[in-house]
Design a protein that fits this description.
- It is a single chain.
- The longest helix has 6 residues, at 172-177.
- The chain has helices spanning 92-95, 172-177, and strands spanning 2-7, 10-15, 24-25, 29-30, 37-41, 49-60, 65-84, 113-133, 154-162, 181-189, 193-194, 197-198, 213-214, 234-235, 250-251, 255-267, 273-281, 289-292, 295-296, 304-307, 312-320.
- With 321 residues, it is mainly beta.
- The protein starts with a strand and ends with a strand.
């Protein structure tokens, strides 16, 4: 098969044989088969049609619980799909081994002709069931949870230890370097509860700070500074409803606080006495994290936001007479 075209007074010729071997043209350049049509449309396109129907029954179980059972159906016609109008008949390539597929197409000169047609349809039938229980924001029973100051475990260790060297003696170095006393308080405790909240008034009560919905394990994948808990387990409730998350469910990081002091008395006589104190707060310089972003949708939601102060040194003199 061959074809000719005029181009500025020059005639170009290209051809191919039924065996699928392309001829040469234009200075020996190999001529490929024409491209396909990827976005053609059928002439008689019909407008899609969708119908929906449902039948439901609601039954009140008690003052706060409602059972809803419904049959829901839908039907759609004239939906769009694509067809290849230049597809080879079944088994053509098996009957013509080694032949280029484009040389055997029904419409020669084209590859695939993908055309949109409106011959598809869909149908949906389902039974949907739900149980809804309204929450009463005035009910103390449903608001039962951990207190805001709750700490499950607290360990406190206090100590006073006189350093056991040069306690007595009249030499100047014993008076200067001996008689020191070390004391301190170490507190290791579990973190405080965190009450999660949302920014918007989804319940429509004229007040923000409502709690979100929880639909997963919030403990999974947490425990880091940037993700203390699984933020994906929480979502904003539907309009006109309260969230199902309880109060003060998430626990913030615990604290490890080490405070110590070193003190000594210098006795000048029976009346005059000078006390020197060196007090160190957080003397190991260990950061204890405690703040957690608690608002769904905020950039810092689920992140650690605050920490204890670094090591602080305080010196003091006290003269008694």
């Amino acid at each position: 098969m061959s074809s000719q075209s005029a181009n500025g007074g020059r005639t170009d010729t290209f051809s191919w044989n039924i065996d699928g071997v392309d001829n040469k043209d234009n200075g020996g350049a190999r001529q490929s088969f024409p491209a396909g049509l990827a976005n053609s449309h059928f002439v008689d396109m019909k407008a899609p049609r969708i119908m929906n129907w449902s039948l439901g029954v609601q039954q009140k179980i008690d003052s706060a619980t409602t059972l809803d059972v419904a049959y829901v159906g839908s039907s759609a016609a004239n939906l769009s799909r694509t067809l290849n109008y230049n597809q080879l008949p079944l088994g053509t390539l098996q009957r013509n081994p080694g032949v280029n597929a484009n040389a055997l197409r029904p419409s020669l000169g084209y590859a695939n002709i993908n055309m949109y047609v409106t011959g598809s349809n869909s149908i949906y039938n389902a039974m949907q069931m739900s149980v809804k229980r309204q929450m009463d924001s005035y009910s103390f029973k449903t608001e039962r949870g951990l207190a805001t100051f709750h700490r499950a475990h607290v360990f406190v260790f206090s100590y006073i230890y006189p350093l056991p060297f040069w306690v007595t003696g009249s030499e100047w170095y014993k008076k200067a370097l001996g008689g020191w006393q070390l004391s301190g308080v170490t507190t290791i405790q579990i973190g405080l509860p965190v009450n999660l909240a949302i920014n918007s008034d989804t319940a429509g009560i004229g007040q923000t700070g409502q709690r979100p919905n929880v639909a997963g394990d919030w403990k999974e994948g947490g425990g880091t500074l940037l993700k203390w808990f699984n933020t994906g387990a929480f979502s904003v409730p539907a309009v006109g409803t309260f969230g199902n998350l309880g109060r003060n469910v998430v626990i913030a990081p615990g604290q490890s606080i080490w405070d110590a002091s070193l003190q000594k008395y210098f006795n000048f006589n029976e009346q005059w006495r000078l006390q020197f104190r060196a007090e160190m707060y957080n003397f190991p310089n260990h950061i204890s994290w405690w703040g957690v972003g608690n608002t769904v949708g905020n950039a810092n939601f689920g992140q650690i936001t605050n920490g204890a102060d670094p090591r602080t040194l305080q010196l003091g003199l006290r003269l008694t007479f």
